[in-house]
Amino acid sequence: MNQPSNDTFLRALLRQPTDYTPVWLMRQAGRYLPEYCETRRRAGSFLQLCKSPALACEVTLQPLARYRLDAAILFSDILTVPDAMGLGLYFSEGEGPRFERPLREEWAIRDLEVPDPDGPLRYVMDAVAEIRRALADAVPLIGFAGSPFTLACYMVEGESGSEFRHIKTMIYERPDLVHRILSVNAEAVTRYLNAQIESGAQAVMLFDSWGGCLSDAAYREFSLAYIQRIMAGLIREKDGQRIPSIVFTKGGGLWLEDIAACGCDALGLDWTMDIGAARRRVGDRVALQGNLDPSVLLASPEAIVRETKAVLDSYGPSDTGHVFNLGHGISRLTPAEHVTVLVDTVHDYSRHLRGK
Fold first, then answer.
1. pLDDT, tens digit, for every residue of 120-143?
2. Residue 179 lies in a domain
3. What are the start-end ranges of the E strands in the chain?
4. Does 330 map to a domain?
5. Of 7, 77, 270, 319, catalytic
6. Neighbours of 6 (CB within 10 A)
């Protein structure tokens, strides 16, 4: 496999000089795009869309046809891994993901097994390979997974939620059971990401969406420790090219220095953290990715330009180490034309700051 003709994103992650700041968006293939909604309608359901390599490829490429984005990200879902463990993933309309068999009993937790990426997750690897072929080395492809703790939240709660009552109770009453789940998840995610790399992913991202709900001590023990385990087990080079890694903990501002030391190449920031302050805290240890508030894209084009420039100004005058992104996934209510304003502003203004 060749290096992409536009490798700006990869060079930024590795803190190499770039002519401009690269940009991609979390959930860039999604419901804000009418073409995505049409493909999802044809698929019949979200899960069927994820499990069809051809359709997953189609929606992965849709935002690249509209916008000058610097990377593609595999269209999939973080819950494919626990689904492959037999927990019975399904999606209720308007209610998000649910599991038929959440992990509440000790025997079920003890029986949990690491799924084979070439078995029940083969469709993901087929999608990665198909997307790489379709991209024809135009831009890099990002693979991803959920963090062990974030997956555990869904696996124990059985659904998305804000209180995390079941798993937090288990942390304090039966930490041994939580560590059992996390150990299996860490091994599963490591194998899963490495299989994506072997199939063609050129960078990987770990989404720790719920790590920020934990106390300081609990985050270090039940989330960060397992993220470090994954980072230590990742393939770092494929076909002579470095495979950079990104770690994103939503609500993780308290632990920036610790996350930066976990073995990742880049640190994803949510919108609550000033990116300039984050840069001063972590120095040159890692690249930074982020971190515009997704709600800015619901405002006027003038506001989008202003707030985008503010993020770039806050990062400061440098031609290394910044990948522009949102501080979380793009809202389904975002007008598609507003993304054009964002992407063009990032490219044009960052060139201006570099004197290009």
1. 999 999 999 999 999 999 999 999
2. yes
3. 72-73, 89-92, 96-99, 141-146, 203-208, 237-238, 241-242, 245-249, 266-268, 287-289, 322-323
4. no
5. 77
6. 17
pLDDT digits (tens, 9 = 90+) for 75-102: 999 999 999 999 999 987 666 889 999 9
Q: Which helix (H) or strand (E) holds 172?
A: helix 165-173
Q: What is the CATH number of the domain that holds 272?
A: 3.20.20.210
Single-letter amino acid, residue 302: E
77 has catalytic annotation: yes
- Of the listed 32, 36, 67, 154, which one is catalytic? 154
The total of structural domains in the chain comes to: 1
- Whether 137 is catalytic: no
Q: Is 154 known to be catalytic?
A: yes
Is the pTM value of this prediction over 0.85? Answer: yes
* 90 has catalytic annotation: no
- Residue 327 placed within a domain: no
For the chain, the residue count is: 356
Q: Distance (Å, rounded) from C-alpha 233 to C-alpha 235?
A: 7
Active site residue 285: no
Residue type, 146: G
31, 101, 180, 281: the active-site residue:
31
Check 15, 27, 98, 279 and give the catalytic one.
27
Q: Which domain holds residue 260?
A: 23-289
Residue 94: predicted pLDDT: 66
Sorting pLDDT into bands at 50, 70 and 90, what band is 161?
confident
Among 85-94, 273-282, 346-355, the least confident range:
85-94
Would you say residue 107 lies in a domain?
A: yes
User: Taking the CB of residue 130, how many other CB atoms lie within 10 A of it?
Assistant: 18
